[in-house]
Amino acid sequence: MNLPADVRVRASGLPSVIRTVEEAIKLIDANLPPDLARLPRWTFARALLAEVMQTRKSRDMKAAVRQLRQALQNEKWLTSGCEAGRFDPAVALRQNCSSILASSF
């Protein structure tokens, strides 16, 4: 099942892009060190992802992706929109990507 948008990751030993719910679950189950995988932020993300697989509801998907992104951000592994190779001025303003904004115009 595809995620609404690719999630870009910057950490050695992890995939650089997560595109599906299955890839996200695999990242948690197979790629995270066991001590990290047991942390509540990761167990909660996995539980929400598993719920999406069962319900396929967009509400559940939004909650699961939000928690996955939060867990990745807590580890400093989430690549922001400024660094992901996509440029959206609105995102750049929200994320304070002033250097990218200045060079775009």
Walk me through what this model shows.
The chain is mainly alpha-helical. It has one domain (2-80). 58% of the residues lie in helices and 10% in strands. It has a two-stranded antiparallel ribbon. A hairpin with an 8-residue loop joins strand 1 and strand 2 (17-20). The N and C termini lie far apart (38 Å).
Low-confidence stretches: none
Q: What is the share of helical residues? A: 55-70%
- Portion of residues in beta strands equals 5-15%
Instruction: Compute the number of strand runs.
Output: 2
- Main sheet: strands, sense, barrel: 2 strands, antiparallel
Q: What is the N-to-C order of secondary-structure elements (H for helix, E for strand)?
A: EEHHHHHH
How do the strands of the widest beta sheet line up side by side?
1-2
End-to-end C-alpha gap: 38 Å
Set down the secondary structure blueprint.
Elements: E1 2-8, E2 17-20, H1 21-31, H2 34-37, H3 40-55, H4 58-74, H5 89-94, H6 98-104
Provide a concise account of the structure shown.
The protein is mainly alpha-helical and about 100 residues long. The protein has helices at about 20-30, 35, 40-55, 60-75, 90-95, 100-105; strands at about 1-10, 15-20. Helix content is about 60%, strand content about 10%.
List keywords for this structure.
two-stranded antiparallel sheet, 105 residues, single chain, mainly alpha, 2 strands
